[in-house]
Amino acid sequence: MVNGLVMMLVVATAFGAETPGRVAIESSPIHVILIGGFVSDPSAKQIEGTSGRGGNSGMYRLRNDLRQYDHVSAEYFNWNGTRTGEINAPDPPMAEGIAKSVRDYHAQHPHERLIIVGNSWGGHTAREVCEKLAVDPVVPLEHVVFLDPSSLGRVKHGQRAGELPPNVRRATNYYTRHLLSWRHWADEPRVENIDLGDPKYGFQVAGGPPYNATIDTQGHIWAEWDERIHYDIRRRIAQVRFETTESLPGD
Question: Residue 56 and residue 28: Cα distance in Å, rounded?
Fold first, then answer.
């Protein structure tokens, strides 16, 4: 496990939490729900833990990385609500099944804050889960991360963004410029948009994945695995863990 104090110091440095007279305070534990994309069911070697950094699911790899942190738990679902290795199971539970699982977890651990991370079709499912959890009894979601979300083949015209469900405190939308993705999430102040194809964010680099392409699907595929994006997601989750500040003694 990563010691909580070490993590606090890293986050304080990264986010400027250690401003004069202030100190980062470790807050309540976090539970992260990761939802994979189309045909991104973890491979047998991933599930066994023998695939190294490879495999068939970037979100499952991120799940394993998050489990190394102190007071952070994480679980994985396929986009259709099935568990690892079961994407082709008959009658998959879909978003309803994930929402029920999250409700049950919240009932058992009401003090823990919830974060959802969804990639591609998993981003579409994440949105559906948020909507289902917005119905009484409402389950609050601290942060939802959409990693190049796509609804192509799942809804008419393949586009789905609109208003963020009211139970979501904030969201981050990492997107490529590919036509199959949601791209920029407009008119939603709780959503921070990260254009992966814009060099200013540091993900679009010479010789790197074509996040700025509208037709080439390689950027969409790479986004699931990009270590830099995963690091940024972990950084944001760490920020949630240490976002509360208070005055130093004697201030």
Answer: 32
Q: Which residues of 89-181 form beta strands (DSSP E)?
A: 113-119, 143-147, 171-175
62 φ/ψ angles, rounded to the nearest 5 degrees: -65, -40
Q: pTM for the whole thing? A: 0.88
Q: Which amino acid is at 67?
A: R
Which element (helix H / strand E) includes 221?
helix 218-223
- Say which amino acid occupies 84: T
CA distance 239 to 14: 9
Token couple for 93: 């539970």
What are the chain's domains? Answer: 4-247 (3.40.50.1820)
Q: Which of 53, 71, 51 is nearest to 1 (CA)?
A: 71
What is the residue whose two structure tokens read 């863990």? 241
Q: How far, in Å, CA of 3 to CA of 150, rounded? A: 36
Strand partners for 143: 115
Q: Is the dihedral of CA 105, 108, 109, 111 positive or negative?
A: positive
Query: What is the distance between the alpha carbons of residues 96 and 249, in angstroms, rounded to a whole number?
Result: 48
Torsional sign, CA 52, 58, 59, 60: negative
Query: pLDDT tens digits, residue range 82-134?
Result: 999 999 999 999 999 999 999 999 999 999 999 999 999 999 999 999 999 99
CA atoms within 13 A on the CB side of 46: 20
Average predicted confidence (pLDDT) for the chain: 88
Alpha-carbon distances, residue 102 vs 12, 59, 107, 150, 225 (angstroms)? 30, 18, 9, 22, 25
